[in-house]
Amino acid sequence: MGKPTGFQEFNRELPAKTPVTERVKNYNEFVHAYSDEKLNQQSARCMNCGIPFCHSGCPLGNIIPEFNDAVYRKKWEEAYNILSSTNNFPEFTGRICPAPCESACVLGINKPAVAIEEIEKHIIEIAYSKNLVKPTAPLVKTGKSVAVVGSGPAGLAAAAQLSKAGHAVTVYERDDRAGGLLRYGIPDFKLEKWVIDRRLEVMEKDGVEFKYNTEVGKDISADEIVRNNDAVIIAGGSTIPRNLNIPGRELKGIYFAMDFLKQQNKRVSNIEVTAEDILATGKDVIVIGGGDTGSDCVGTSNRQGARSIKQFEVMMQPPVQRTEHMPWPTYPMVLKTTSSHEEGADRYWGINTEEFLGDEDGNLRAIRVNEVSWELDVMGRPIKFNKVEGSEREIPCQRIFLAMGFLNPQYEGMIESLGIELDPRKNVKATEGAYRTSVSKVFAAGDMRRGQSLVVWAISEGREAARKVDEFLMGHSLLESKDAVN
Ligand code: FAD
């Protein structure tokens, strides 16, 4: 690689962050950029490891040693070309990916892994600043049309690839803007929304057409979309949240995390919030659920000025806490420590919620919980929890955000009307690698097929499904496949 001794000379360093006291005053991203010298040093840490496991650790098959080498040599166009050959949206993954590539980094065996995610973000930001990010659609079109339903990372990646293959692409989105959970789930302090808009501009120049406020299966019939196109990719996400049907659920003050997060993302973007305001300001907040959604509720509650924030998780505390140099959480993966926790929240593990308690006006006033102990299987994995007798307690609170994951896609509308088969987990049935559903011409990608997952997997599925559609339409495909990399 660029500097064979780099991994011995330089320690892993991440860019500085805005101090907590400052960053909680707004919703801006708070991770700064490397200096030129630091970026050069960090890329030099990628060693000539022989078998770069980072390739297969990344769901996109990113060709990491090669782009690190190009960064070290300051060959920005080369670095961008390598990175964009496997990843349509490094500006998203470079900000919010949990970076499975870093946990696969060979250097990580005895030193902190190469800071791959940050290097990726720098490559794409430099590429934009040097005007290297250009439309990729060919001048000669295939004459085929493809509809993509859903504009989350899976739908956007599919659309970008299909357009690159020369097909006419229309993206249908029920929301008023594109991005899916990037837009209306993930808060601005993790991903500012101009980053999505900048990418959409490139895609629009590429000829991708976006139809907003259009729910397929409601505002426009799903049959019509299938009839009028040569192929369809459905990428509607996994949007039905897991509920907690215990006594008191009807009380005022208990909300699904997504209702809370979506409102705040709209406020930050100056988009009108039409529903009743859901705010944590001045309240004692309890977040139930320990994943990304839960920690985004913590960060948002802090910024709204909550009086106190507690986060409950029924799982046990993981044996090793995630640190910034050990980016992949240890088992169980749901219990991540994120930058939102640095900003302040009391975390409790092994807590089960029994009941929500209200006052005479039907407002939430407290939660009754108990502690649990877990039975483990032979591998040490938790299989069943039991209540710890006598551990019940009541905790005052006026806001609860339910962040316990998502069950499945919405069936009502598109899936029901097309009669698409579901898999045993109740997601859309379409095997990984083929992405074809039970309905002719209809393919599926992202959380709708895979179940709730990660942005990097959504992009990967969108790309791979686009390639399968291209093969279906043309008999072969020149689009890149991650299988060619690994
Ligand atoms: P989505 O992003 O859900 O997009 C689906 C889109 O389809 C939506 O815009 C929806 O409106 C639209 N749609 C659905 N049905 C229809 C229809 N019938 N007609 C028209 N449009 C339709 N992952 C990470 O890697 N890092 C993180 O930090 C992270 N943080 C997260 C934080 C939160 C709060 C949440 C909820 C998830 C987070 N994730 C994170 C997970 C990640 O966002 C998802 O895995 C990813 O967005 C899934 O992409 P997708 O394209 O499959 O679906």
Automatic annotation (TrEMBL):
Matching InterPro entries, A to Z?
DPD_II, FAD/NAD-bd_sf, FAD/NAD-binding_dom, Glut_synth_ssu1, Glutamate_Synthase, Helical_ferredxn
- Sorted alphabetically, which keywords does the UniProt record give? Amino-acid biosynthesis, Glutamate biosynthesis, Oxidoreductase
* Presence of the UniProt keyword Amino-acid biosynthesis in the record: yes
Q: Which residues form the Dihydroprymidine dehydrogenase domain?
A: 23-130
One MF term in the entry's GO annotations: oxidoreductase activity, acting on the CH-NH2 group of donors, NAD or NADP as acceptor
**Pathway where it operates:** Amino-acid biosynthesis
Any single GO BP term: glutamate biosynthetic process
Instruction: Report the residue ranges that make up the FAD/NAD(P)-binding domain in this protein.
Output: 145-462
- PANTHER family per the UniProt record, alphabetical: GLUTAMATE SYNTHASE [NADPH] SMALL CHAIN
What protein name applies here?
Answer: Glutamate synthase NADPH small chain
According to its UniProt entry, this protein's organism is: Mucilaginibacter xinganensis
